[in-house]
Amino acid sequence: MGLITEDNAHYYSGQQSIVIYVDSQKVITWRGNVDLVDTTNTTFQNYRVLKNNVELDQGSDYSLSNNVVTVTASTSSGDVILIELLQQAKESNYGGYAYTTLSDIINNFQVAYVGEGKLIPSAKKSDIIFHAKRGLQEFSYDTLKSIKPQEINIPPSLSVIIPHDYVNYVALSYIDEMGIKEMQDKGLVSTRTRNEKRVMKTAQGGFVTPQFYFQGLDGHEYSKKMQDLRSKVQTLINDFTTIKKINNK
User: Fold this and answer.
1) Structural domain of residue 133, as residue ranges?
2) Which secondary-structure segment (H or E) carries 141?
3) Residues whose CB falls within 8 Å of the CB of residue 230, separated by 6 or more in sequence, listed in order
4) pTM higher than the cut 0.70
5) Is 148 a domain residue?
6) How far lies 57's CA from each of 10, 234, 236, in Å?
7) Residues 222-232 pLDDT 10s
8) Which of 93, 127, 150 is the last residue of a domain?
9) DSSP letter for each residue of 166-221
10) Is residue 123 in some structural domain?
11) Which residue in 165, 168, 149, 143 sits closest to 3, CA to CA?
């Protein structure tokens, strides 16, 4: 797998933003893997520039040169400049990190290890190609497999972004409303909502969880229901247990 050379904002959202405080910050170097392109005879513009969520005009408000955007529009301290790839440019970048070509591996090896005064004085390129291919085979045999689960909400478009460390899938499953109900019926998940909690009312009118009843109340008096619960618990203990004499040594 190749190295990931951009952050999540560039990879997932295709965005880079900066808050302007001084004029020197109006010259912005784009750090994403996809090169910014203006409209020419052979290409279409693949990005846009916004100030405080309002799109700027190319030419009159900003210019581009070698992935450096220069904002010429007037700005105030605290304005947010956002550079954003268009959707097609974003999608072309997904998965682009994933591979290092065999040519790069071979060329890097020749530069680093082959030549006068290096580890290998001379070597045929055909031999390097052979061992590079064998090395790739060994990786597939020996590298430990890592399986990661991820829960994804499927949008109406039925299209989601693959995580940047994705290699392949081992299982796919889904849960709809009927699936959740079935798990609740089987007792696999709780039927209560996360906002619910069982409590008991004390003699002073406060509320405590039932666990505190068995642990003892600090600063509270037992209510009538608490006393009834204690009596019923004691009855159950008497009904389901026996007394066994213990010889003290």
Assistant:
1) 102-142
2) helix 125-142
3) 213, 222
4) no
5) no
6) 22, 79, 79
7) 677 777 877 88
8) 93
9) ----S------HHHHHHHHHTTSS-SS-TT----EE-TTS-EE-HHHHHH--SS--
10) yes
11) 165
